[in-house]
Amino acid sequence: MKKWLEELRLSPVKKALPVLSFPAVQLLGISVKELISDSDRQAKGMQLIAEQTDSAAAVSLMDLSVEAECFGSRIRVTDKEVPTVVGRIVHDEEEADALEVPKVGSARSGLYVETIEKAVKLITDRPVFAGAIGPFSLAARLLDVAEIMMDCYDEPEMVEKVLEKSAAFIIEYCRAFKEAGANGVVLAEPVTGLLSPALAEEFSTPYVKKIVDAVQDDTFLVIYHNCGNNTVQMMDSILETGSAAYHFGNAVDMKKILEKVPEHTVVMGNVDPAGEFCNGTPESIRSATMELLGRCGEYPNFVISSGCDIPPLSKWENINAFYAAVSEYYKGKK
Predict the structure, then answer these.
(1) Which of 131, 222, 261, 291 has the fewest CB atoms within 10 Å of its CB?
(2) By CB neighbour count within 10 A (0-12 exposed, 13-18 middle, 19+ buried), where does 218 fall?
(3) Nearest CA-CA partner of 143 in 225, 68, 67
């Protein structure tokens, strides 16, 4: 996989690698609720997307409610939207101490591992990446996103206890994906993007690094994702995680990110998933894609992608226009 990533970096003609999974509901003719409940449908959806697009890799569902549900969180599921976590389950240090690290296989985690096991048998022409939440973003769902921002100042020991348990579960979850045949994981740490650089260095970086050190090797890569707007300022600590590649959202200027990343490290992003893929037009997404490639395509370590997970009901005509624009840009570079 490290060789695959290096070949991707060195290739003058690069394939896009958007976080594209949930729009499979349209290809399958089912609801989001049905998709998240069935590993056969998830694997088939990944196969259909791989057959329809020329992505550098296949990516499984970026469902960031799965891990919190395993810890006992309640989730809200609808037919059209990605599942969300409702409420908090840790309110104080006593509850943080009592919080149990769940087994992989609890709630829907076993179903998502089954999806990877099935998908790697269906998709054999490109790597297959699983999706998982990052440690601070999981802790934020257990403590509540708004509350954890204050807790980092007022109750840092409680936050660290929840982070330790979050990281412990994510490590075992990633190991299960690895055993199922995944070639890597997209580790989504979006809530860290709301922190100051100093807090990110204290409450996210060490725990992400612990996960990376535990699971990443020549056969399994970690792609770190952060779609926050403070990522430019926290790039030093983000790079300390040791992830194989980095993926950023459309809240930041990708060129400024690339200026801070070593040229041998692959950086991905950041066409607006809501504004363009979901609510744009084929003309507007072509324009946005060509503009981004015009600014960043000359960086050899840049791989164009969506800024985050592409929403389930994003128009396929827009998705296809994105790939067509990427092909158009690289046509003269073969």
Answers:
(1) 291
(2) exposed
(3) 68
Residue 232 tokens read as 């430019």
> What pLDDT was estimated at residue 334?
62
> Cα separation of 46 and 50, whole Å?
6
For 233, counting Cβ atoms within 10 Å of its Cβ (0-12 exposed, 13-18 middle, 19+ buried), the class is middle
Distance CA 211, CA 222 (A): 9
Residue for token pair 């996989």: 1
pLDDT value for 132: 98
For residues 173 and 111, what is the distance between their CA atoms, to the nearest angstrom? 12
Cα of first residue to Cα of last residue in the chain, in angstroms, is 23
| CA dist., res. 259 & res. 272, Å (int) | 20
3-state secondary structure of 247: strand
> β-pairing, 58-59 with 128-133?
parallel
Please report where in the chains the tokens 């790939």 appear, as a residue.
323
Those residues with Cβ within 8 angstroms of residue 198's Cβ, 6 or more apart along the chain or in another chain: none
The CA distance from 228 to 297, in Å, is 22
* pLDDT mean values, one per 10 residues, the chain (334 residues): 96 97 98 97 98 97 96 95 94 96 98 98 98 98 95 97 98 98 97 94 97 98 94 95 97 96 96 97 98 96 97 98 97 75
